[in-house]
Write a structure and sequence with these properties.
single chain; Diaminopimelate Epimerase, Chain A, domain 1; 40% helix; inorganic pyrophosphatase (n-terminal core); six-stranded parallel beta sheet; 2 domains; 12 strands
Length: 337
C-alpha cells in the first residue's frame, strides 16, 4: 500500500468511518468488514458497516453482524452514513457500481477519503488508498495485512481473528483453492490465538436447515444436468422452484460446489431465475478460468475459479447461451482434470 504513513496519520485521531462491501455479501465480505470494524473501534473510531443487501442468516452468529445496515431496507440511514463519513473503506469489490446505490452516494462525495482493500481483477481508480492483491486468497487475508501494516498486529485477538478466518475459509472453500504459504502462516498465527477452527468450520459449513437439505437434494437429483462433452455440470432453478422451496438469500450458498465433486468435471454452473434477471454462479477446477466466461459473456466477474454473472434474457435463453459458449473452450475443457 502506497502512502501508508499518510493513512496512519489520518487514522491517528478518531474519525467517522463507513465500511461498505458488495451486494449479496458472502463470508469474505462479512468477515473482512467485521474484522475491520472491530479493529477500528479499538482505536475509538465511530465505524459502521453498510451493505447494499442483506447477508445470509447463516452468519448471524458473527459478533457485530446485528448492527450492519442493509441499504435495501435502510436506505436513509445508509445514505446518511456515507454523507457524514470522514473515511469510507471499500472491501471485497473493485468498482463502485458493484454496490449499487451505495456506490452512487460514495461517488457523489468527491472530498471523502476512500480506501480500497480487495483481491479482484482490474480495480477502478476511485480510491485514494489501495491495498490490492489478486494473489491473496481473500479480502480477509488483506485485512490481516492492513492491520499488520498499521503496526497493530498485536491487536488481532480471537474476536478479530474469527472474522478473518471466516472469510479465508469461505473464499478458499476450506483451503481447496487460492492458497499460499503466506496464507497458511497467517492461519497459524490465528490458531495461536486459540481460535477453534473446527467449531468455526461447523458454524459455516455444517449448519444447514432441513429446508436447505431438501433444496440440495432437489438440485442434485432433479435440477442437475451433466454435459459430458465439455466436462461441465449445470444446475438450473426456475422461479417456480424458488416459490416451491421458499428459497431465501443464502439457501443455495455452496450448492454449485457439489458439482465439482464429480470426477472429470471441470466447470460447474448454478443458473437461477430471479425477478427481472437470471443469475449465474460459476466454479471451476485447475487452470480453467470461469472468470473469463463471466466477464466476456455475462457481464460479471470474480476470480479464475469462482465467478458470477447476470443475464436479462429468459432463463431458457440464458441456459442456451451458456451451452453455446462452451464449444469456444472445447480444447481446454476436454482435457481431463
Amino acid at each position: 500500500m502506497e502512502n501508508i504513513d499518510q493513512l496512519k496519520e489520518l487514522l491517528a485521531t478518531p474519525k467517522k468511518i463507513a465500511i461498505v462491501s458488495h451486494r449479496n455479501p458472502d463470508g469474505d465480505a462479512l468477515g473482512s468488514s467485521l474484522a475491520l470494524f472491530h479493529y477500528l473501534s479499538r482505536h475509538r473510531h465511530d465505524a459502521t458497516i453498510a451493505f447494499p443487501s442483506a447477508y445470509p442468516t447463516i452468519f448471524n452468529w458473527m459478533p457485530g453482524a446485528e448492527y450492519i445496515l442493509n441499504h435495501d431496507l435502510q436506505a436513509k440511514k445508509s445514505d446518511k452514513l456515507i454523507a457524514e463519513a470522514d473515511i469510507v473503506f471499500c472491501l471485497d469489490f473493485n468498482a463502485l457500481y458493484r454496490i449499487d446505490k451505495l456506490g452512487e452516494s460514495i461517488a457523489a462525495r468527491e472530498e471523502v477519503t476512500k480506501v480500497l482493500i480487495d483481491h479482484h481483477l482490474e480495480p477502478d481508480t476511485f480510491a485514494d488508498y489501495m491495498l490490492w492483491d489478486t494473489t491473496a486468497s481473500s479480502t480477509c487475508e488483506l485485512v490481516f495485512d492492513f492491520i499488520s501494516l498499521m503496526g497493530d498486529k498485536a491487536l488481532i485477538d480471537d474476536l478479530i481473528g474469527e472474522c478473518i478466518l471466516t472469510g479465508i475459509l469461505t473464499d478458499t472453500g476450506s483451503f481447496q483453492y487460492s492458497t499460499s504459504a503466506k496464507l497458511f502462516r497467517i492461519v497459524a498465527d490465528l490458531k495461536d490465538l486459540g481460535i477453534d477452527d473446527t467449531e468455526l468450520h461447523n458454524k459455516i459449513f455444517n449448519s444447514l436447515t432441513i429446508k436447505q437439505l431438501d433444496i440440495l437434494g432437489f438440485c442434485l437429483t432433479t435440477a442437475l444436468e451433466i454435459i459430458p462433452k465439455y466436462n461441465t455440470g449445470m444446475i438450473v432453478l426456475t422461479r417456480e422452484d424458488y416459490k416451491h422451496f421458499r428459497i431465501q438469500r443464502g439457501d443455495t450458498e455452496g450448492i454449485v460446489n457439489y458439482i465439482l465433486k464429480v470426477r472429470r468435471l471441470k466447470v460447474a454452473a448454478l443458473i437461477s431465475e430471479r425477478d427481472g434477471f437470471v443469475k449465474l454462479s460459476l466454479r471451476s477446477k485447475g487452470d480453467f478460468s470461469v472468470q473469463e466466461i463471466a466477464t466476456t459473456h455475462f457481464g460479471g466477474g470474480g476470480h479464475k475459479n469462482a465467478s458470477g454473472g447476470f443475464s436479462k434474457m429468459s432463463l431458457r435463453d440464458t441456459v442456451n447461451k451458456f451451452k453455446d459458449v462452451l464449444p469456444s473452450y472445447k480444447a481446454q475443457l476436454e482435457e481431463p482434470y
